[in-house]
Amino acid sequence: MRKRKISVAPKPISRSAVERMLAIHRAVQSGKFPNANTLSRELEVTSKSIHRDLIFMRDRLRLPLKYDELRFGYYYTRPVRGFPTLHLAEGELFAILIAEKTVQQYRGTAIEKPLMSAFRKMAAALPETVSLSLPDLDESISFRTSAEPIINVKVFDTLAQATAQHQQLRIVYRKPGAKPEERIIDPYHLANINGEWFVFAFDHLRNDLRTFVPSRMQSVARTGRKFVKPESFSLEKTLRDSFGVHSGEGYFDVVIQFDGEVADYIREKRWHASQRLRNLPRGGVELQLRLSSWREIERWVLSWGGHAMVVRPAELANSVRRAAQRILQASRSASPG
Prior knowledge:
Blueprint: E1 3-6, H1 17-29, H2 36-43, H3 47-59, E2 65-68, E3 73-76, E4 86-89, H4 90-102, H5 112-124, H6 134-140, H7 153-165, E5 167-173, E6 181-193, E7 196-203, E8 208-212, E9 217-226, H8 235-239, E10 252-258, H9 263-267, E11 276-279, E12 285-291, H10 298-302, E13 308-312, H11 314-334
Antiparallel strand pairs: 1-4, 2-3, 5-6, 5-9, 6-7, 7-8, 10-12, 10-13, 11-12
Helix pairs in contact: 1-3, 2-3
């Protein structure tokens, strides 16, 4: 992919790193021999931040910065025509746009602020205009979700910080249809899977790894204790044989047949790493999976209505049949007359 040379023309962001470095560049280029103390006062940041900016300019941007021991300030050892330009491929710029679009699903959560801050900093390094038509791309791409999970921002923020800092938590957790229960957990990992958030944590009550849904947590508080995440923990291994987020013990060969009306939808996606497809007569398709538990796939099978038939295991077929019968009975009782 051909690279496009893009001149840096930052948008006004209060004392962003890019804005500071541009100001430092102008001060050095003026021949006034500025130092960290004078620059920190002028830009209203700490001298430590100025030192980081100077190191970045020298080592990453390859600017010929040097400190003059006699004049107590910085200067360029050779002429510098302008601040270094930023080179982005069209694909890189497109990827940034896609990433920014994904931020929209985190509006109102604790993640929104740091994500938007990061994108504002990237925007400061981009030009006002570019050969790509960003407005056209912006209008052409979007992300939507039909059922957005309801998350308490304070709870989510505490979860995120505790997971990153290895802090033990005391939570009040309510499973669907059950009474609230207090748990002590060590949060190992916070993951967004298929648009929903899950916490993978060691549950001291169950003495085992468990999966929790943040929206079911009525309260979250730090216990003041730290924990060490086991080196053996791997989210990839934990979810490798599950259809969603729940893993069981043992293995089940799951076989489901779909009629010709929905078969193309099944062929269009990779539903699981173990999947195998076999074409059936009249346009149907058979989906074969190897899972550690069949319970999580039950709702997915029911979502296809009468277009899906479970061949095996028998436990899944029987469970789907009973669920279908309950749906039929509820529909009959709700019918007028």
